[in-house]
Amino acid sequence: xxxxxxxxxKPTEPGLANPLALIGIQNVxxxxxxxGKPPKRILNGVTLDIQAGEFIxxxxxxxxxxxxxxxxxxxxxxxxRGQVLVEGSPRTQPDQRCGYVPQKYSLFPDRTxxxxxxxxxxxxxxxxxxxxxxxxxxRRREFQAEAIGYLRRMGLRExxxxxxxxxxxxxxxxxxAIAQALIMRPKILLMDEAFSAxxxxxxxxxxxxxxxxxxxxxxxxxxxxxxxxxxxVLATRIIALGRTAGLDDGANIVLDLPVxxxxxxxxxxxxxxxxxxxxxxxxxxxxEAGGAPEV
Length: 295
Hints:
This protein is of the alpha/beta class and about 300 residues long. It has helices at about 65-75, 115-125, 135-155, 170-180, 200-215, 230-235, 265-280; strands at about 20-35, 35-50, 55-60, 80-85, 90, 100, 190, 220-225, 235-240, 250-260. It has 2 domains: about 20-95 and about 190-285, 3-Layer(aba) Sandwich (Rossmann fold); about 105-185, no CATH class. It has a 6-stranded mixed sheet with strand order 6-7-8-3-9-10, with helices on both faces. The chain has a 4-stranded antiparallel sheet with strand order 2-1-4-5. A hairpin with a 2-residue loop joins strand 1 and strand 2. It is globular. The chain starts with 20 loop residues before the first strand and ends in a 16-residue tail after the last helix.
């Protein structure tokens, strides 16, 4: 029988911080300037609490602010009004608590797979060890051994470590990008349309991989997707962003849906249909696979 995970209750007052929340988004407004026009509002007073260990799928039509929401949590962008908290503290700059996997592969083309995966660890320790000191070399060997472990967990071979990104398929590159993020042991993993450019077979494999890794690590995941079925299959909770019909007043939350832990295809299809009808009325922007064009 399907079961729904029990989560802490949300605060009863809008914008009130929940002390149990890992991520608190409080009455957030975001506007972007337009030459010769009034600013365009993207987010319109979004309030959202996310507890540690949740897998959140964020859905919505193109331009509704899904990627903006991730950038706010990452602290690559600041809200015009409201605030974003992680572990109760306002976000002011990116840090190791958040890992990020974008839609386009974020690998350095002039570095090997192994060098790409260990890059973050190397950078964080530059200030502690000299460039060629024995301590630095020892730590680098530790990083490389750890990276090989992540490579295997991603379903890649140790022989892939010496390859360059252009020698890998799209799915393999995305596996390396996920390893690059996970090796930093982030509390929060942000994934922005990370599977949308993959073929259906590779995409299904990546869905299974990320769900298994989430179960194994307990990392809190925010996963942006246009695909309602993908949202349902992966998430413990779905957040849909949308605008008021007929108004260009920015997006807010139009659906906050707990997802049962189920393999029942009928139940999955019904939930995906509900997400689709709420988020993409009339099938707008939907493609044959139940997804949508790239953002």
